[in-house]
Task: inverse folding
């Protein structure tokens, strides 16, 4: 199974020291380039943990295609837009978001993928 993560979901997992269990749950964890850029701005321990987590072989860094990003709502942040665009593009099983857009039903079971 493949999961695509946005910044806030990775930061929450890092703060709870729960990045590594993703390996047991998903064969591939995709992190958009935009998410990595957002975490580099933050110089705290969770952000550094995410950077270190990127070295694991089951974690893939990916850039969202421009045409996919153009289809996304401008009200979302760059990391959220990229995560959803990549998840759609890959046909990922899950996109991990922690934002109002998701909580209000924007991505719940859409295009055959779940959001959490």
Result:
């Amino acid at each position: 199974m493949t999961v695509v993560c946005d910044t806030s979901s990775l930061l929450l997992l890092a703060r709870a020291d729960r990045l590594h269990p993703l390996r047991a749950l998903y064969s591939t964890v995709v992190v958009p380039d935009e998410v990595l850029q957002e975490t580099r701005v933050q110089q705290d321990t969770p952000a550094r943990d995410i950077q270190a987590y990127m070295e694991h072989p089951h974690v893939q860094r990916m850039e969202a295609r421009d045409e996919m990003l153009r289809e996304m709502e401008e009200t979302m942040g760059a990391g959220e837009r990229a995560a959803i665009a990549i998840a759609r593009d890959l046909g990922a099983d899950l996109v991990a978001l922690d934002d109002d857009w998701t909580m209000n039903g924007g991505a719940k079971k859409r295009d055959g993928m779940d959001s959490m």
